[in-house]
Amino acid sequence: MVIQIRYIEDYNDKIIIKDSTMFRSKLIEDQTYYRLRRKQLILNFVAIIPMSLIWGLYNWQFWILLVGLALYVGAILLMRRNQQVMELFAGNKFLELDEEALRVVSKNRKIIETINLESTSSIILKKEYDLYQHSIKDVFSEVVAVEKGNSVILDVEGEKRVFLFEIDSHYKLKQLSKIIDCWLQKHYNIERV
Question: In what order do the strands lie in the sheet with 101-106?
Fold first, then answer.
């Protein structure tokens, strides 16, 4: 059973009131995002090394402390730059899924694209969707370059459309599960891979 939530959509200066469940997440616009996210994770680990030098070797010579501090500041600046580049590939658009449609929406809530799910010949979903870096195992698998992106693939008029997104909370994971249950009840052609 899906809990129905009443919400108001304000798209393109039209207000629509719906009783529905909805999933909303950042749309990943390019696979480069995953490489940058991995780089960010590695930089976080690298930043720990100079900090441990600063705190662990405080009685060593002054120049060692300066080198450790310089390495730490350098790692922080690289992480900041990498984060800005990551935001170019994710966060400018959002993916919204509900019982009847998939929408790509801009940051200012303007609809860029709407795909009615009834017009799709198939919907390809993962067998299991994952939270981003939910466990230590996930963190280490990402460091060794095992990409675990979440996606929805729609077959629209013979063209496969891939929508990559990131789930960052248990709430979003539950909402996605409810949406998929609704799709199954509506007998959409769903494949699990």
Answer: 111-116, 101-106, 90-97, 23-28, 159-165, 150-156, 122-125, 190-192
* 144 and 74 part of one domain: no
Tell me the pLDDT tens digit for each residue of 49-73.
Answer: 766 666 666 666 676 677 777 877 8
- Domain with residue 184: its CATH number is 2.30.29.30
166 burial type by CB count under 10 A (0-12 exposed, 13-18 middle, 19+ buried): buried
Cα separation of 117 and 155, whole Å? 10
Domain extent at residue 127:
5-30+91-192
Are residues 102 and 151 located together in one domain of the fold? yes
Q: Are 16 and 70 contained in the same domain?
A: no
Nearest residue to 190 via CA among 158, 160, 152: 152
Q: Report the alpha-carbon distance of residue 63 to residue 173 in Å, rounded.
A: 49
Domain count, the chain: 2
Task: Please state, in angstroms and rounded to a whole number, the distance separating the CA atoms of residues 117 and 108.
Answer: 24
Q: Considering the entire predicted model, what is its pTM? A: 0.70
Instruction: Please provide residue 98's backbone torsions phi and psi, each rounded to the nearest 5 degrees.
Output: -135, -165
- Same structural domain for residues 102 and 146? yes
